[in-house]
Each structure stands twice: as C-alpha cells, then as structure tokens.
Design brief:
single chain; eight-stranded mixed sheet; binds iron/sulfur cluster
Amino acid sequence: MQKGKIHSIESFGTVDGPGVRFVVFFQGCPMRCLYCHNPDTWEISQAKYELTADEVLERMTRNLPFYKTGGITATGGEPLMQIDFLTELFTKAKSAGIHTCLDTSGITFRSDAATLAKFNTLLEVCDLVMLDIKHMDASGHKALTSKEDTAPKAFARYLSERGVPMRIRYVLVPGYTDGEDDLKSLGEFLSTLDNIEQVEILPYHELGKTKYEALGIPYPLEGVRVPVGADIDRAKRIIGV
Ligand code: SF4
C-alpha cells in the first residue's frame, strides 16, 4: 500500500478552504519561492511521517462531525509531487462524503497523455482548487520561484476549461510582485478564466523567518517591508477584484 510523505497535519484549519478543515501538509516542493514560509517542507526526503491514505483519514474521521461544513485540504509543500497518493486520499475522502480541496501552485502540470490522465483522475475527486499564482511576468516568476511560469498558467487554463471551482491566491511582495504592469496583467489573465470563486491578495509576511534560521538558510527577503492594508487595496484596485 502506498504511503504519503507528510510534513504535518493540522486538525483545525480555518484559512485553507471553506469551513473547518483537516489540513494535510505534504512534504516536498520543487519551487523555491523567496517568500516561502514553509522551507522545512521543501525536501521530500525529510518527511516526518509516512502514512497511508487510510491512516490519514482515520485521524480525521475520529472527529468527523467537526468538519461538517469544511473538509480536507491538501497543502504543503506541493501535494501534486505525490499525485498518486493524493488521488487515493481524495478518492477515499470523497467516498466518505468529505469535501476535498487542493492547495497548489500547479507546477507539475504537463499536457502529455500520461500526466493528463493522472490529473483528470485527481480532478474527478477534487471539489476545489486553491491555486497560487506567483507572478505574471515570465522572468519575474523565475526570479521569485526558481521555476518557469508555463505549467502554473497552463494548469489555471486547464482548470477553467474543465470547470473546476478555483480560488486564486496571490502574495503581494513589495518590489517583487506589486508592479502596476504585473498586477494589470494578473487582472487580464484572471478575466480569461471561468469558475473563479474568490481572489485573495495576501500580504507577504515574515513568519517563516525563524525556520530559515533553524535550517541555516539565509533569509531571502531580508529588509523587504511587509505590505499594509493600503498596499492590498491598491493591488486589488489595479487587478480589478
Ligand atoms: S510553492 Fe509553496 S511550499 Fe513551494 S516554495 Fe513556493 S511557497 Fe513554498
């Protein structure tokens, strides 16, 4: 039986999808976002737990009534790095009547037939995707995340074509993702997508800083200011949300 490499589990999540969520943090992420507040999830070999889908769900179903208006959320790290395990987890959750939500950057999306088949199977058991859009400019995306922007944007279009409900998240980082042209271009891109339930503009924060210190990694955004409400309002205005 396959096991998922899990970083941690939070049993009372309130910001990772609708209602109260059982939040599973997957270990492993191919991106290296400068603002990442979970650098301890990057290396897949450093998983704290290896659990089967049944073992994960068993922990959740102990308190099932608690999640009546919520459900399960897979986040990380990047859950799509373990798409087979994720699909099994969501398939079993759906059979138990549990709402499923995937929090992802879409970085592993590819349109070859074999990969697409896996994504299609997953999306059949996925009620909601919380999709992070990192940057609208190709070189800005590379500089911010270490990866090309092709897969995340193709995944957004694919979700739109399939009619999968989406919530978009965009992290506002002064000097990196708050340029007027980038925000306008984000608004234009979002206007081409269907099935967007919500757009969240999240202020960059420094809560992950101590994790970088603990891991001995220099903090990449040292000296970058934390956005205030007025910055968020300006961004929303330019994006048109
Ligand atoms: S995609 Fe998420 S987990 Fe991965 S580096 Fe970026 S912020 Fe961190």
